What does this fold into?
Amino acid sequence: MSEQPEPVSPDTIENLEEQYVLGETSHELLLETSAQHVRLTHHMAAQATRSMKIFTRDLDPLIYDSPEFIEACKHLALRSPYAPVSYTHLRAHETER
It folds into this structure.
C-alpha cells in the first residue's frame, strides 16, 4: 500500500515554496485549494532551466494566463533560446488513478 501525500495547510504554503526544489524534492503534496496549485505551479515554473512540459486536461487561465507564469516562460526562453515549452492535453480517462 502506498503512502498518502501530506495535505498542505494554507499557513504552510510560503514555507513549502522555499523548501520545494524542482528535480530534487521527491515527496508528494496534496494541494487542496486552487490558490495552492497556482502558487506552487508558478514557483516550479520559475525554477525551470532547460525545458518545461505541461501535462493538463486544460490550460487553466488562472494558472497559465498570469503575469507570473508568463514571466517564468519568458525567463526560460531568454536564458536558453532553444528550451522547449510543451503542452500535452490529457483526456479524463488518462488522469484517473
